[in-house]
Amino acid sequence: MKKILLFLFLGAVGFTAYSCDNDDDVIQTVDYDTIAQMADITGSFSSTGNYTISQGLDIPSTYVVLVYRLSSGNVWQQIPKSVYLPDVAGKPTNRVFDYNFVFNSQNVEIRIDDENFTLPTDLTSGEISTYLSNQTFRIVLVPANTSGIGGAKSKQAAVDYSDYNAVVKYYNLDESKVKSTKVN
Fold first, then answer.
1. pLDDT > 70? residue 178
2. Which residues partner with 75 through β-bridges?
């Protein structure tokens, strides 16, 4: 009988010691206030601006910067994006340029890169209107942590950043609250 009581006592002590080990009491150092943000900028590319549009923003180091261009039909295309222009009489053939961007902690710079022709002399007036004048870009700042913290849904597959609508849905972004700025 003494042996049974001894084993019951040891079992109770062991169970108590195991059940008191509570790892969820660890203090979390994750910032739960981090949320995705959006801003629109509209501007025109010109030689005086070195074919660049700049927007000052405070960009925390824990964010990823995404930039989308508003294309025809209210479609947002992620940049960098190569644009292949159709051949036009009197203009060079195989005309290509890239919308691209660079950023630092205080600024996003959207620019035209890698053109294989002279801007804007080798563009038609329609192409200037379509690709250089009054271009709208949406800058989206999203948390670099995609584990579900910071507004994103947890336990979900990684978002396809090239799909603007998927990004909006994944990060629960409210398009009605986008701030717009006209530059240039």
1. yes
2. 71
